[in-house]
Amino acid sequence: xxxxxxxxxxxxxxxxxxxxxxxxxxxxxxxxxxxxxxxxxxxxxxxxxxxxxxxxxxxxxxxxxxxxxxxxxxxxxxxxxxxxxxxxxxxxxx
Length: 94
What we know:
By secondary structure, this protein is an alpha/beta fold. The chain has one domain (2-93). It is 30% helix and 22% strand. It is built from two helices and five strands, in the order ββββαβα. The protein has helices spanning 53-66, 80-93, and strands at 2-3, 13-15, 28-33, 40-46, 74-76. Strands 1, 2, 3, 4 and 5 form a five-stranded mixed sheet that branches. The radius of gyration is 12 Å and the shape is globular.
């Protein structure tokens, strides 16, 4: 079961529930996050954030855990709070 959560205060990180019956809006990539301690959550992350080294680290962790040939939605092996923190740090630096 995919858990939905409130919209982040920044428009660069959105809940997927607004777009559950639609494709991701242009400029966003859907991401599934969650670890053993919490339910998976589906969020939309602004594509421009993926170039940041902090996000690259999360993507590399995903490749190590799940491989480079993931099918469907991109899955990150971290909790939603960690992803929110990374996004906040990227936005603070810009």
